[in-house]
């Protein structure tokens, strides 16, 4: 009776868990998001643990039954090879020959006493090789016959989707996300003071404290290498200067709000007179 009760509870648990998980996969938009749906992961882990535990118990029970049967036959269970089945599996998957059987596959080659064996390729290796051929065929058809998206195209599509979602969030919430397209010029004293402090800490070593330039270009004249409005300056600070030379990208170091304030402070230096102005670089900037 106890055995039947355990089996009933086991089957009942599997059915209920399976139905619950199926429902979650159908109705949840992100069923595997551990933060939104932790119960799904708990159910999955519980499902796997119960199945594994049940199988372990079955193996243990079967082993005990086999040992009892051997004892009835007068055979000591300890004298029986415990790994006989495993050895059979390994032999089947490797086609390995025992040392005493190597004479059967010995080739008629002899190099200074070194003999060669005509071993078969292990089945596990052959199956993996066949799998790579199949993968190659699928890859060829998918990407070279039917023009599947390469990594660069997939990346651009993902970026476009992310930008679309970002615009949707901006249009439905009061949270404003600052980037090169949405940034606005700040003119209030508090913002410019913060921008000046960040500039002196991170930018003055290359552009001089008064913006006159040094390693970097002069920021007080009307000539710009990568554009001279708030959008262009924000983008340059965020993503860096020209490829292979120029300023590094600061987006991983500075927050967008601080980059906005630095960019606004840089533009406030226009028309000032630095102590040692560097010769103008780039082109005369005129707002379109």
Secondary structure topology:
Elements: H1 2-27, H2 38-72, H3 84-94, E1 106-111, E2 114-117, H4 123-145, H5 151-172, H6 189-202, H7 204-207, E3 223-224, H8 230-239, H9 256-268, E4 283-284
Antiparallel strand pairs: 1-2, 3-4
Helix pairs in contact: 1-2, 6-9, 8-9
List keywords for this structure.
single chain; 288 residues; mainly alpha; Cytochrome Bc1 Complex, Chain D, domain 2; 3 domains; two-stranded antiparallel sheet; two-stranded antiparallel ribbon; 55% helix; elongated
Q: Roughly what percent helix?
A: 40-55%
Tally of DSSP helical segments: 9
Q: What is the strand tally?
A: 4
Placed side by side, the strands forming the largest sheet appear as 1-2
CATH-level-2 architecture of the largest domain: Orthogonal Bundle
CATH superfamily of the largest domain: Cytochrome c-like domain
> Biggest sheet: strands, sense, closure?
2 strands, antiparallel
The chain-level mean pLDDT equals: 85
The proportion of strand residues reads: under 5%
Shape: elongated
């Amino acid at each position: 009776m106890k055995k039947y009760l355990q089996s009933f509870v086991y089957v009942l648990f599997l059915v209920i868990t399976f139905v619950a998980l199926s429902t979650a996969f159908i109705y949840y938009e992100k069923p595997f998001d551990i933060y939104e749906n932790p119960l799904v992961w708990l159910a999955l882990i519980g499902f796997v643990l119960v199945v594994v535990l049940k199988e372990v118990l079955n193996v243990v029970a079967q082993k005990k039954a086999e040992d009892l049967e051997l004892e009835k036959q007068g055979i000591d269970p300890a004298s029986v090879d415990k790994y006989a089945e495993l050895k059979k599996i390994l032999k089947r998957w490797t086609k390995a020959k025992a040392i005493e059987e190597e004479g059967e596959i010995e080739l008629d080659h002899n190099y200074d006493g070194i003999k060669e064996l005509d071993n078969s390729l292990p089945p596990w290796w052959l199956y993996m090789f066949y799998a790579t051929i199949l993968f190659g065929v699928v890859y060829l058809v998918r990407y070279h016959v039917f023009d599947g998206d390469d990594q660069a195209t997939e990346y651009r599509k993902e970026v476009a989707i992310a930008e679309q979602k970002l615009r949707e969030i901006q249009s439905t919430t009061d949270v404003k996300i600052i980037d090169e397209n949405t940034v606005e010029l700040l003119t209030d004293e508090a913002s410019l003071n913060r921008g000046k402090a960040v500039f002196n800490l991170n930018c003055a070593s290359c552009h001089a404290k008064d913006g006159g330039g040094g390693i970097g270009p002069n920021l007080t004249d009307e000539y710009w290498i990568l554009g001279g409005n708030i959008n262009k300056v924000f983008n340059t600070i965020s993503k860096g200067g020209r490829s292979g030379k120029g300023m590094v990208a600061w987006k991983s170091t500075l927050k967008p709000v601080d980059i906005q304030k630095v960019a606004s402070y840089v533009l406030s230096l226009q028309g000032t007179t630095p102590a040692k102005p560097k010769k103008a670089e780039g082109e005369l900037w005129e707002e379109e």
